[in-house]
Design brief:
This protein has 352 residues and is of the alpha+beta class. The protein contains 8 helices and 13 strands. The protein folds into 3 domains: 106 residues, Sandwich (Immunoglobulin-like), CATH 2.60.40; 74 residues; 104 residues, no CATH class.
Length: 352
């Protein structure tokens, strides 16, 4: 007796739990439509996992209820699976061709062999389309496709203009790259000082040193060396092995013969200091004056300019670098032109 007392409540609770896990909900996405319009009936089923669920099937144009027609049946979607319960959903597209207010029961679903139906009934209001009953003889056929209003596509226009400009730029860059040649460079070169300029500068420096020199003989030795270097460079005479008298004899047959007296004074005064050290204070500058006068009398004609322009071919490395730069610019412009052309073709094709 005690066992029966607890058995019946347990069975009742299990039945309630099983029933709670099995439910069907039905809803229309629109309860008001016009004649011939469509609405969708959505059946949502919740059932334990592993339990077979069978949704009702309808053939197209079959009647779900009086005045309500099934247009098509959609597929089954599994929406969720939580806590051992699965949620399934299926849609039915409905329509009606009679204006009325319809009230009908949702279709049943078989869950685990049991027929389960949503407890709420469904309502659908179908409204008629207004018709001009006073002019029934006026029938207007279907209209042709309306022409779209013309709208200027500024982006398309800008890309088209850019394509034209890029094409011209690419053509010009390719022409420039093909016509690149080695340049002839002009360089301005400062000419070195002439023999007389070097000699006169050295004589002026020695003239300033003679007053503070500890050994004047060394200064005059440098003066004689300067004159010998000048004669060798100007008259092309080897003076390294010639004594002063021999040097004077060698110059008698040269253009410098007119200035031998000045050279003789410079050599004699220098020799006196070097060998006798008998040059007076008043005649200390005499060798420098005579040496400068000799150089000035025998110097070459003055040059027109101390600079000279020379033409040289452009270095090969610089030429190749310049040509490669033109090639890179032409390739980039060509790639941009191709990209613009492809974009234009794609846009025009879409418009057509």
């Amino acid at each position: 007796m005690t066992f029966r007392r607890f058995l019946f409540p347990l069975l009742f609770a299990a039945a309630l739990s099983a029933t709670a896990q099995r439910s069907v909900e039905a809803a229309l996405d629109s309860t008001r439509i016009l004649i011939g319009s469509q609405t969708t009936l959505l059946l949502t089923v919740r059932a334990p996992e592993g339990v077979a669920v069978v949704f009702p099937d309808y053939e197209p144009k079959s009647m779900l209820s009086e005045g309500v027609e099934v247009v098509s049946v959609l597929g089954i979607d599994t929406m969720a699976s939580i806590g051992g319960t699965v949620e399934l959903r299926r849609g039915y597209v409905l329509t009606s061709f009679d204006s009325a207010h319809y009230r009908f029961a949702p279709p049943p679903v078989i869950i685990g062999g049991d027929t389960v139906r949503s407890g709420d009934s469904l309502t659908l209001s179908v409204a008629s389309v207004p018709v001009d009953t006073l002019h029934l003889d006026q029938f207007y056929g279907a209209k042709d496709v309306a022409a779209e209003d013309f709208r200027l596509n500024w982006l398309l226009l800008a890309v088209a203009i850019g394509f034209v400009l890029l094409s011209a730029l690419s053509y010009w860059l390719i022409r420039r790259w093909r016509n690149v040649k080695r340049r002839t460079l002009r360089r301005v070169i400062t000419l070195p000082p002439t023999e007389d300029q070097v000699a006169l500068s050295e004589i002026s420096t020695l003239r300033a040193e003679i007053y503070n020199a500890a050994d004047p003989a060394m200064v005059y030795d440098r003066l004689i060396a300067t004159l010998r270097t000048y004669i060798a460079a100007r008259l092309h005479i080897d003076t390294s092995l010639l004594t002063s008298p021999q040097l004077l004899d060698a110059l008698r047959t040269t253009p410098a013969a007119v200035a031998l007296d000045k050279l003789r004074v410079a050599l004699s005064a220098s020799d006196i200091v070097r060998f006798a050290n008998q040059l007076s204070e008043a005649r200390r500058e005499e060798p420098f004056t005579a040496a400068a006068a000799f150089v000035d009398a025998t110097k070459a004609p003055p040059r027109a300019s101390d600079t000279e322009e020379r033409e040289e071919a452009e270095p090969l490395v610089a030429y190749r670098r310049r040509k490669n730069a033109w090639l890179a610019a032409a390739m980039l412009s060509t790639l941009a032109t191709i990209a613009a052309a492809l974009w234009l073709v794609n846009e025009i094709t879409a418009l057509i």
